[in-house]
Design goal:
alpha/beta; 232 residues; 2 domains; 8 helices; 8-stranded mixed sheet; Rossmann fold
Amino acid sequence: MKDDVLKTKMGKRLMALFQQIPEHSREVIDLCCDHGALGRAILETRPHCSVIFNDVRANIIDQLSQKLLSLNASNYQLSIEPAQNLKIQQAESTVVLAGVGAEQCIEILTELFQQPLAQSCHFIISPATKNFYVRQFLCQQGVYLLNEQTVTEKNRTYEIITVQLNAVQNSKKMQQTDDYLFGQCWQKNNAEHIAHLNKILTYYQAAKVINESTKKIITGYKKIKKNIEHPL
């Protein structure tokens, strides 16, 4: 789907999230949706698919409701509540969680993963910060990795991690190994990836207290950076 045919304009990151949503999805849950661009694009392009727009801020949902009028769509719901309180209503839904920090991301997923219908859902996760901790949480939960990628937009690089709670074809169970804790989405000699890894290392190396967990994170990202800077 080309962005120029949509009323809803999406940047590179939103387009990458959009492209991860399976064609067969009958419901997309856009958590912490902000202005709802991702969900609006779904309504434009997939009339068979319903969308739940969720945000804790009532003013954001009010503004979104006005934008939705221009799409002449009816297959959506508006949810004003903390994302972790939202109830999954359909099996095999796609849940998108992007743009929030690691702590909030983990808090939300902890609650959602406990719901019975979550077992068949497709989770697309793109934390704003501290991806290691989200990956560590996913490994602890024993979820199955479907896809991982990075996208760079406006000099920021984001990871997009797609998982399910149960095994499906071509999925891999996430385990507490470097491949899953730090990701395999880094490209050799990619200047954007190297710059992003440098930012991560600068952040953790500047910590006032460098404990064992922080040392592990620094060591892991240094290893990735070395591997993509000097590929064998």
